[in-house]
## 1
Amino acid sequence: MKAWRVHAFGPPDSMAFEDVADPPLDSGEVRIAVAACAVNFPDAMLVAGTFQITPALPFTPGFVVAGVVAESRDPAVPVGTRVASTLNGYSGGYSTHSVTAGSRCATLSDHTPATDAAALGLTYQTCWIGLHRRARLQPGEWLLVHAGAGGIGSAAIQLGAAAGARVIATAGGRDKVELCRTLGAEVAIDYTTADFAGQVNEITAGHGADVILDSVGGDVLHRSTKCVAFEGRILVVGFSSGQPFPLRANHMLVKNYTVAGLYWGTYISARPDALVSAQQEIDSLYQDKRIAPVVSDCRPLTDAPAAMKSVSSRATVGRVLLIP
Ligand SMILES: NC(=O)c1ccc[n+]([C@@H]2O[C@H](COP(=O)([O-])OP(=O)(O)OC[C@H]3O[C@@H](n4cnc5c(N)ncnc54)[C@H](OP(=O)(O)O)[C@@H]3O)[C@@H](O)[C@H]2O)c1
C-alpha cells in the first residue's frame, strides 16, 4: 500500500509518500481500502509534534476514513462491506489502506457517499457530544457557534438547528458569514469587523447565549464570557487561533455560567458507547436530510501536504478530503 509517513516532526512538506508493507491483521481487525479520508485541523499539529498527544515515529496521520473492507478478521464486518471508521489520528488515514477494529466501523447505507461519511466523522461526533451530552442544549435556547464555516462550526450550526436551538454564528468574512446562514444560522456575524458579544446581547434582548461552542480560543473565548446567559454553558472545543485563554473562576461564579472542556479523543477509550450512540443520531439526521456535511474540496491523496496547509491557514470551509 501507499501511505504518507512522518519520520520526524516538522511541517506538512516533511512527510514522505511511501510504499509500506501491509500490516498483518489481529483478530477483530479489518483492512479498509480507503475511498476518502478527512483532513482535520489537528493533523498538521500531530505532524509538527505540537498536538496534545505525541505519536511514536514513524506514523501516518488521519482521523477518519470511509471505504470498502478489503480483508477482515471480524465476522461481523465481512469483505466488501462499505464502512466509515474513526481512527486515533496517527495510525493510518492518509493511506490507500487503513487497519482498524471492526467494532470501530459503521456500515454505510447504499445512499451514503464515502465523501459524506468521511466528513461526518470526528467533527459531527464532537459537536453532538458537546451540544447534547455536555451542554444539554434545549429546543428554543440560543446557541452561539464560533468559526461557523469551519469543519467544527458548520457541524455545530447544523446539529444545533436540528435540535431546535436558535443559532447565532460568527465567521471571518462575507462569504463565510453567508455560508453560516445557509447552514441554518438565524443570525451570522462577521467577528473580524464587529463586536459579536455586543450583538449577541442585543439580538437576545439581554439574555445572552445559553450555549456557546468555541473552537477558536483566545480573545474569542474571552469575549464569549461577556455574552453568556445566566446558567449558560461554554464548550471549549479548540484553539484554532493558537491562543488558549485563562478563564477567571470568579467571573464564572458571579455570572453563574459553566465552562466544559471537550476532547473527542478521550471518548474513544473512556466512553466509546457515547460515540456509537452519537454516530447513530448523526446517521439518522443525515438519512432524514436534516444535516449534510459541507465537503468543499476533494483532493488526490498525493496532495496531502498542500491540503493540510490550506486547512491550517484559515483558507477552507467545511471539510477537505483526500481521495486515494
Ligand atoms: N475538542 C475536540 O475533540 C476537537 C475535535 C475536532 C477539532 N477540534 C479543534 O477545533 C478547532 C477547529 O477545528 P476545525 O476542524 O473546525 O478547523 P477548520 O475547519 O480549519 O476551521 C477553523 C476555523 O477557525 C477560525 N480561525 C480563527 N483564527 C484562526 C487562526 N489564527 N488560524 C486558523 N483558523 C482560525 C477560521 O474561521 P474564520 O475565518 O471564520 O475565523 C477557521 O476556518 C481546532 O483547534 C481543532 O483542533 C477539537
## 2
Amino acid sequence: MFLDNKEEFETYGTVFNIENYHINDGAGIRTNVFLKGCNLWCQWCCNPESQKLACQVAIHKNLCVVCGVCYTSGVCAQGAISKGEGGAPLVDSAKCVACGACVEKCPNEAIELYGKRMSVAEAIAEVEKDKQYYIQSGGGMTISGGEPCVQPEFARQLARAARRRYIHVAMETAAAVPFEQLWSVAEFVDELLVDVKFTDPEKFKTISGVPLETVKENIRELVRRGKYVKMRCPLIPGLNADEAHIDKLVAWAKELCVEDVDLLPFHQLGKYKYASLGYGYELNELRDMDKAVAQRYRDKMIAAGLCADVGG
Ligand code: SF4
Ligand code: SF4
C-alpha cells in the first residue's frame, strides 16, 4: 500500500489487547492498542497484566473446574504447569514460554494468555477496520499500556503507521522516561494523555525509580513543542485523594499551560486479575473512590479556571 512502509512489517511488539469503541481515551470513538510492559509499579493498577513486558499465562480460578487436564495431559512441553493447592493448576513463570498450548487445551476457557507478539502491520490492520467510525466521530487510535514508551520503536512505528493512514493518534503515558524516548513516539502523536499520579516527590518514589521532576519537565517540553496534553490524575483514597494534591494539580496545570484535566476515581474492577496472575494485591481493603468527592474536586478545578472532568 505504501512504498516506504517496510518497517511496518519488520517492527514487532508485544500487545495484550486491541479494543474497539472506546470513548474515554481521546476524542471521538477510538481503538485502543494496549502494549505490554511498564516502568512503574502502581499498587492500584487496573491492568496488572500490562506490567511485565513478557507474555504471561493467567488462570481464572472462577472458571477453573479443577479437571486437571492442563497438568495431566502432558500438554506443556516445558513442564511449567503443575497441580497446585486444591487441585488448581500452578504455573511456573520461570519455565513458561507462553506458547499457549494449555490455553487451547483447557475445556473451560480458564487459562488466558496475556500478550501476543505482532507486527505493526498486523496491529494497524486491526485499527484500520474502524476507520469509518473515526471519520464520523473525530476519533482514532489510542496507544495505551502499560507504558507505551517501554516499547518505543513499536509505539513509534505504530503511531507513524496511523499517521500515514490519516488516523488521529492519542497516547496514554506516565511520561516517566527520558524525554528523547518519550519524544521518539510523541512526535507522531496528536493527543497526549499524561498520567500525573502524585505531586509529592516522596510518594512518587514509591512507584517509580524516576524523579517526579522528569514527569513535570516532560510535560513542559511537550507543550513547548506544540503538543496537546491532557493531565489524567488517578484519585486513590489514602494515597493522593486529598485537597492538598488537588491544589498542587491545579498549580501544575497552570504552570505547565495544560488546560484539560481528567480525574480518575479509584475502583476495584481490576482486582480479580491479580489473583489470576498469582500476584498479591495490596489494596484489598480499599473502597472505591467516592464519586461525589471526586466531583467536588472537579468543581474546584473548574473554579480555578481549568477544564476538568471526572472519568475520561
Ligand atoms: S484445564 Fe482448565 S479447568 Fe481444567 S484444571 Fe486446567 S485450568 Fe482448570
Ligand atoms: S503457555 Fe505453554 S509453556 Fe506456558 S504453561 Fe501453558 S503450555 Fe506451558
